[in-house]
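Researcher: Here's a chain I'd like modeled. Treat it as a single chain, no partners, no ligands.
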Amino acid sequence: MSKEKEAPDIDVMMQAIPYARFLGITIDQRGNEVTTVLHFSPQLIGNPVLPALHGGVIGAFLETTAIAQLIFEAGEGALPKPIGITIDYLRSGRPVDTYGRAEITKQGRRVATVRAEAWQDDRARPIAVAHGHFLLKAVDEFADK
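Model: Modeled as a single isolated chain. Structure tokens:
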């Protein structure tokens, strides 16, 4: 008999990330798709003249989106750790809800590469895109094997 991996509760895992809790990021999971939602709040404004979302908030949102996808697909208990992430800011984030999706482009035993995008009203017009590498398991976990 083969054991099926039990899907982790992504919302519970996200609560383990203090900044994700602070930003109020939620997860909308439908079937095999995971969409993250950054609900607008005035505290997220970086430029009050425009007004526009703070770039750091958008970056953290994309990183969290990538981590949520890794948790969903890997189904493991430990949170992936970011190794490096690059963000391309494509347009200003307006003061409305922002949505994100991620795709794992390559996954090994220890490291995964993920592409995440954030959009507001139209998914075809992303406001930012991230490319990141994440450590899936701590290196010392492999030392004993």
